[in-house]
Prior knowledge:
Elements lengths: L6 E9 L2 H17 L4 H22 L9 E8 L3 E11 H16 L2 H14 L10 H10 L4 E6 L5 E11 L3
Antiparallel strand pairs: 1-2, 2-3, 3-5, 4-5
Amino acid sequence: MKTLEQKDIFSFNGLLSSAEIENILSTIEAKCVQLKFSDALVKKIFNISVEMLQNAYHYLKDFPQEKKFELSFHIESDMDFFYLKSANLVLRRDVSPLAMKIDKINKMSFQELKAYHKEILNNSQFSRKGGAGLGFIDMKRRSGNNLMPNFTKSLSPDFDIYQLLLKINKNG
Length: 172
């Protein structure tokens, strides 16, 4: 439920493709410029949006053609924070590794994140999905806040709903 102080900046609900990601990012950037956000804030919102959308795309692109699912992506704000929110389905078998990866990153200090980032790049530690958690590391480092995932059982025995919330401090 939104408070009176929260306002919508951007909203997307639809099928995700690489072309659609480009459209979404162009719209987000234009909206941020239109609202006269600082260059640093535009860059932060844009780069975190890139990571969130690519993360969703990597999980959605492997679904069978007849089971393509939609993404929900929103940017909202209140007096203190911007809230970037995504929601999409993931294969149930991906939930545990995904949750563990995010939990591991959330427990790290920023110094530990920097070292872990370097370790992944040096050792090429990539998962079955092709990612190594670099996007999650980047989101935490850029936002200065932990990632807030939520996994909910769907009606399908094969899929769960994966929601990700990330806060960006307006003054920092």
